[in-house]
Amino acid sequence: MTTTPDLRAAVGQAATAPGDAGLARRQSGARAVYDLLRGRIIDGSLAPDARLTEPVLSAELGVSRTPVREALRLLQAEALVVELPTGGVRVAPLDLADARRVYDVRARLEGLLARDACERATPDDVARLVRLVTLMDAVRDHEDEVLRVGAQFHGEIEALADNRWGSALLRQIRGHVDRYRALAARRRVGTTDHVDEHRAVADAIASRDPAAAEAAMRAHIERSAALAEQSLRGVGSATDDLP
């Protein structure tokens, strides 16, 4: 790994600083390491089953072991890393059974949020969703941008829904959703599938049809589940049917 100056500045020697100021800096440093490692787990830079140890990460990142240890605890609480019997941790594996469970929960939660959003959306809200779909169409050949705009679209839906329990439950699986979402996005690059699916959600909300909004969102996520499964199997294309 290459350490960025920003990460060094964020973490520094916080672990040795005294008093409340030292505690605040240590927590901030652990968060910086957590954000970096979490991002690399989600984008695949840290591969599933890769072993992570405090001494190695500390040396690679140029920080003390304390923020690394605290960051790994946060990742373990999120189940993005799992503890090894011999010490240290490894990146949580990706597998079909887990993908199916994650997507099933996600489809139910985000379908509910889409229904709630439909009941609350104003014309200005709908216009924002439509603009995001148009932008998604413009960047459909770029995986990173597809992921970014798609996440923004889903974030808008969640904000409109204003369902704190639904949002809290979704946050609990966010990291796992993002890992599998990245797999699905790779199979959408260059297609209009994701654009059409998001447009169907926006159209249902514009039509004030909560049932249709929920159904469109669930169909979109179920399609993503199928694409993620294809990536995990390592076969097929975005247009292939799963067995």
Automatic annotation (TrEMBL):
Pfam families given in the database record: FCD (PF07729), GntR (PF00392)
CDD domains in the cross-refs: WHTH_GntR
Residue ranges annotated for the HTH gntR-type domain, each copy included: 27-94
Keyword S-adenosyl-L-methionine among UniProt keywords: no
UniProtKB keywords: DNA-binding, Transcription, Transcription regulation
GO function term, MF aspect, one: DNA-binding transcription factor activity
Keyword Transcription regulation: yes
Protein name, entry field: HTH gntR-type domain-containing protein
Organism of this sequence: Cellulosimicrobium funkei
